[in-house]
Structures are given as C-alpha cells and as structure tokens.
Amino acid sequence: MSRRPQTEIAILGALSIGPMTGYELRAAITDVLGDFWHESFGQIYPTLATLEESGSVRRATPGRTSGSRFEITSAGRAVLRERLAEPHTAPPPRNALLLRLFFGSELPPGRAAELLRAEIDRATTALGRFAAIRAEVVAEPESEARTFRSLTLSYGEHHARAHLTWAREALAALPQDV
C-alpha cells in the first residue's frame, strides 16, 4: 500500500474523533500516534485537499480557507472503514542506530557505547511516557475504543522493553576499547 492511503487513514481516523484544522491534525497525530506514526504538513494539506475533492471531508466552516476546520463526512467514514480493513505491508525498516552499529568499526572509540546509552535513555523515557498513557487509558470508561487504544499501547510498551533489553545486552557485549 502506498504512503498516500496510509496518510488518508491517519487523517480520516483523527477527524473521526472530531473536526480539526490542518495544524490541529498534525498536533493530534504527533501527540497521539507519534510513537508509531507521523505526518508532515506537506503530507496533510495536499491529502486534505484530495479528501475534500472526493467528498470524504468537508470544511466545518464553509467558504473559509485559512485555518479551516475539517470534519469527516459519512462517505469519509466509509472510506476509513474500507482502508482500515485492507491488508497492509510493512515497509522495510530504516534504523539509523543499526546502520551506525553495522559499520561500527569505523566509529571513533567510545561512540558505539554512547549511541547505545542514548538508546537506553530513549527506551527508558518511552516506557515512562507509556506508563503515563496507560494510567489515562485505564481511567477511561470501558469501551471498544479503549480496548483498541490499549492494544496499540501494549505494542509500544513491548517494543520499548525489547529495545531497552537489546541495548543493554549490546552495550555489555561491546569490547571495552571500542
């Protein structure tokens, strides 16, 4: 699946929660989905225009262009449901840390250890952030949406714990003089 339908899913999904401007969409996607998805303004605004042309979204304040709030239409909800049901393919991963470690023999002495300690810090910070989100999710009333948010959060927690474990093991495995 190309990037555009994924961007449409992110935008339609965010708008299914409530009307937003392009700026608010970017903030919502970053704040809520940022641990596993991101969109730039360069992706959001052209996609909003396409979705508006197709009738999937409309301006909540007709005629206004600057700072327009967009809302999802019933046709947009149908598109969202259809796109969410499509199989997805995972793009090849791009991991800058692993790229550097693969060529680690070319790194200055101590740099690999610095990179791994930074990864340990990132994973530890992520686990703290996920714990705060978990407290918010647990406080929500039981609902289908809460169940799905919890599943997504669980993925993030497992991923961060795995990164933390791996980075600690990798740091311990490094020769002392590297």
Automatic annotation (TrEMBL):
InterPro entries the UniProt entry points to: Tscrpt_reg_PadR_C, Tscrpt_reg_PadR_N, WH-like_DNA-bd_sf, WH_DNA-bd_sf
Gene3D superfamilies: 6.10.140.190, Winged helix-like DNA-binding domain superfamily/Winged helix DNA-binding domain
Pfam families noted in UniProt: PadR (PF03551), Vir_act_alpha_C (PF10400)
Ranges of residues in domain Transcription regulator PadR C-terminal: 94-174
Positions of the Transcription regulator PadR N-terminal domain: 11-82
SUPFAM superfamilies noted in UniProt: Winged helix' DNA-binding domain
Protein name: PadR family transcriptional regulator
Organism annotation: Nostocoides australiense Ben110
